[in-house]
Structure formats: C-alpha cells, structure tokens
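User: tokens in, sequence out, please.
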C-alpha cells in the first residue's frame, strides 16, 4: 500500500460551522490505483488532500491519526523533509489553474521552477524538459507557450500546464483536486482521458477529488464518499455505482443529470422574443491594431414563446454568452433585430430602452461575483424596483414573497452575501431577477459552479419558477446533461454559428451534427448512470 490514512482528525478554528474538518478518516491508496473521493462542498475532500500534502490552511490543525506514505508518517516529518517530498514524490493539480498559476510569470519559468528546485540541471536543460512535458500533455507548439502568460491561455490549456507541472518530477502519488470542475464537457473529457492515460503509462497512484459521480464512473478504481468530514461509504467503483448502501450516496447519484431527455409539453402561442440575423464582432488589440477581428455571434436567429425554455448549448467561445448579452443589450449588436412582443430593442436608444429593460432579466454564472459583497441582501434585491421609482416598503414586501418563492427565508434580508453558500447565492440572484416581474429570464450557466445536488435543486427551482410566473427562459449551458433537464428546445452553437436546433428529446435521440454528437459523447459517466 502506497498511502494509508488511519483515523485522521483535523479541527476547524473556533466559530466554524462544525468543530471538525475531518473526523476519524481512514483510506488506503494502493500502487497504480485511482481512488476517488466524492462529496459536496464542505465534505472535507480538499482538506484531506491538503493534509496529505502538508498544506492545511492556517487555523486547521491535525488532532489525531496518521498519514503513512510508503510506511513513513507524513504528519511526523519535519517541514524541510516535506518540502523535499512535494513535487518529487507527491504532486497536486489544484482546482483553479488561474489562481494556482502566477499571473505575472511566463509559463516556461513556472514549469521549470520546480524542476530546478529539486534537480541540479541548467536552465536550458530545464526548459527542454518543460517543452517535452507540455508536449506530453497534448499542448500544441509547446516551445511557443514557454513565453506565454496564464491569461493568454484557455482554461483547458491552463489545466494542462498544471498537469505538466505536477508530472515534472515523476511523482509516485498524484492528487487531482477537482481539476475539471470549471471546464467544458469536451475539455473535461480530454483532461480526464489524459490523466488516466498518464497514470497508466507511469503506473502512478492517483487521489482524484470530485463532486460528480459521472466523473467517478469514468475515472475510479475505488471510491470513498465523504460527508461533513466523514467517510460514509467506500468500495470499488462497481460496488458504489451499482449497489450504493448509504442514503447520501444514493442522493448524490440521483442528483447527477442523466443526459437523457424526456419529451416536455410544447409551448404554445405567438413568439414573445424573436432574434433575427444577430451578429457581433470584437476587434482584437488596440485602436490601431492590425490583428483582425473575431465574430462572436454570426447571423443567429431564434424564437422563444411564453412559458418555454430554449437551451443554448456549446463550448466556451461558441458565442452563447455574447448572444445573451446582445439580447439583453449589455452589449450592442452590430446587426440584426431583437424583437420583444414585436418591438425591436436592438436599435432602440437608451432613453426609450429603459422602460423595457425590466421585461428581460438575467441570472449570472458566478454566484460569488454577481452579488455586491458590501450590500445587504435586502438592498441587492430591491435595487431594481427602487430604480424604477417603487417605494422601499413596497419593494421589501415583494422581496419577502419572492424569497419564499425561491425557497429562502425572508429573514435573510439583513445579511451579507458572504454568509451564504453558492446555491443560496444563486437563489438570491434569481430572486433579484424576478423582482422586476420579467417576461424573459436569461440564465447564463447558472449551475456550472455548483455541486450536483445543489445543481439539481436550482434546476428544479428554475423550472418551477418558469411554470409559476409563465416566463420565457433562455438557458445557457455547456453541459448537454443540464439542458436535458429543463429545456423544451435546444440550439447548439459553435464558433458563433448555430449548427443545429430542435426539440430537446429529438436532438438527443438523433443528433444530426457531428459537433452535437461530440458534446453528447463527452458527458461523463454516460451509459453508467
């Protein structure tokens, strides 16, 4: 056994939501084995990984247990010995590559820094090793990437750089902490395949942390299910997926979108929203740059009826969010029409547009950055009605009703955003959008940052709100599984163009486009869950 965690217990600082981050946790990782730890945010998954790395945050202390690595208790090793182990024997791929990579240091230096810290080689030799590593993880033109900064790479490229850095010293244990959470399903599939391929080639042990049982189905040899710092169930992947015993495991598996759409009731009536030939081009560089332009939305048309949900699906860069921002006029389209009940809002001057803005509202992707951290929830939710001249007392009275509609206690009005979980913040964002009683709701990746159980709750809530308020909804996502849960129709976009559209059930049953087929094939765990 390469790693044996025995009775590990770690205490949280005073004032935390529970006394222990990890409670009496035992887990083994054999040589050449992939073990997945699965659970929701706050279950202790990442704390366990950081304990193995000796990187627990300030205020969190181990109060009991052992972490044996090849028979040596890592908890008893002096700091200098642990520094020598990190990277060389135990390496980690962190969840957010944009936060883990230094934004002001070029990629080449970041990859070579660890190599030169552990090996007595020249900078030239280290750079050549960096080129080889970047090539091994599937990055094109790796020599050119050495001089690039993190912000110049896509999310998938940054994650591949993180994998290259983790593999640079051929560690015996690789810890992957939610390495695909923020990625498109196609990029996620590529990264998962890459990690599994490298693990098999190098015969490494892997501790893979995730909240998604679809990923578990594709990756794991064995699985440990964590909840509130405890392992509630563990076993082989077949045992956990086919014969789960614990109610929490059953709930996690049930929450995974299945990606198999059932026919939904068709919406009727004349279109509430029509988009005709909409286009938007962004120019690269500065005013005098000759680097050309990027067409983000290219001659897109759609219709949306009252009471209907239209899913817009595609990878990052496909034009989904740009299209939504043009519809709501957060961006000015270059050409085309956006008709709301027959009135073209695309060409309307700001003064005339203002009364119509309340009819189209948006729920943004990131529940953590879309709410002002310095304002109380009551001020955030009532800002829209107050801007249109509504009395504060009346706005607060309606806020009470809307909060109940989205499943929140009205007593939260005096609290601040940081006091809530991601799922609760997303409900607050939805409440803010509903306060103006819109006809059209645009949901831009509203569940991509959430755990699967919270994701299932928010998807159900969105559909209930659509029915209750008879809304028309544009639902933007990169995940075909999610689209299948709530959308009557789906429109697939790629490189700014519509490649396919139709009723959700028909499109899932018989996709016509090769790109749509690739999106469906990339669904993690497809066929197992």
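Assistant: Sequence out:
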């Amino acid at each position: 056994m390469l790693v044996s965690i025995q009775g590990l217990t770690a205490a949280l600082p005073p004032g935390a939501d529970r006394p222990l981050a990890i409670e009496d946790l035992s887990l083994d990782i054999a040589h050449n084995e992939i073990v997945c730890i699965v659970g929701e945010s706050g279950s202790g998954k990442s704390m366990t990984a950081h304990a193995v790395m000796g990187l627990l945050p300030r205020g969190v202390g181990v109060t009991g247990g052992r972490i044996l690595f090849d028979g040596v208790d890592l908890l008893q090793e002096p700091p200098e010995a642990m520094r020598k182990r990190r990277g060389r024997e135990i390496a980690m791929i962190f969840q957010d590559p944009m936060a883990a990579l230094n934004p002001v240091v070029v990629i080449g230096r970041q990859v070579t820094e660890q190599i030169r810290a552990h090996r007595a080689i020249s900078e030239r030799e280290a750079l050549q090793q960096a080129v080889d590593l970047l090539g091994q993880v599937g990055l094109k033109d790796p020599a050119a990437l050495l001089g690039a900064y993190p912000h110049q790479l896509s999310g998938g490229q940054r994650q591949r750089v993180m994998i290259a850095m983790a593999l640079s010293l051929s560690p015996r244990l690789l810890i992957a902490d939610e390495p695909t959470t923020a990625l498109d399903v196609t990029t996620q599939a590529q990264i998962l395949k890459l990690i599994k391929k490298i693990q098999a080639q190098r015969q490494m042990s892997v501790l893979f942390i995730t909240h998604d049982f679809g990923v578990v189905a594709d990756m794991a040899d064995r699985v440990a299910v964590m909840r509130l710092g405890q392992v509630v169930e563990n076993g082989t992947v077949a045992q956990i997926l086919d014969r789960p015993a614990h109610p929490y495991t059953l709930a996690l598996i049930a929450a995974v979108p299945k990606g198999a759409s059932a026919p939904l009731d068709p919406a009727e009536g004349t279109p509430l929203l029509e988009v005709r030939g909409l286009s938007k081009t962004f120019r690269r560089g500065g005013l005098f740059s000759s680097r050309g332009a990027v067409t983000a939305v290219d001659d897109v048309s759609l219709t949306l009826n009252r009471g209907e949900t239209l899913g817009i699906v595609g990878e990052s860069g496909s034009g989904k969010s740009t299209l939504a921002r043009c519809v709501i006029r957060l961006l000015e389209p270059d050409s085309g029409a956006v008709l709301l009940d027959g009135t073209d809002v695309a060409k309307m001057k700001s003064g005339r547009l203002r009364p119509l803005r309340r009819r189209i509202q948006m729920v943004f992707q990131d529940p953590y950055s879309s709410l002002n951290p310095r304002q109380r929830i009551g001020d955030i939710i009532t800002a829209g009605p107050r801007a249109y001249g509504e009395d504060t007392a009346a706005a607060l009275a309606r806020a009470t009703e809307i909060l109940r509609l989205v499943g929140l206690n009205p007593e939260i009005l005096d609290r601040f955003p940081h006091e809530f979980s991601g799922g609760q913040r997303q409900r607050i964002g939805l409440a803010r959008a509903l306060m103006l009683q819109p006809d059209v709701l645009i949901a831009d990746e509203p569940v991509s940052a959430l755990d699967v159980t919270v994701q299932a709750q928010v998807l159900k809530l969105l559909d209930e709100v659509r029915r209750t308020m008879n809304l028309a909804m544009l639902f933007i996502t990169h995940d075909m599984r999610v689209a299948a849960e709530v959308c009557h129709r789906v429109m697939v976009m790629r490189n700014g163009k519509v490649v396919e559209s139709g009723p959700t059930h028909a499109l899932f049953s018989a996709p016509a486009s090769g790109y749509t087929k690739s999106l469906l094939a990339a669904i993690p765990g497809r066929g197992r869950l």
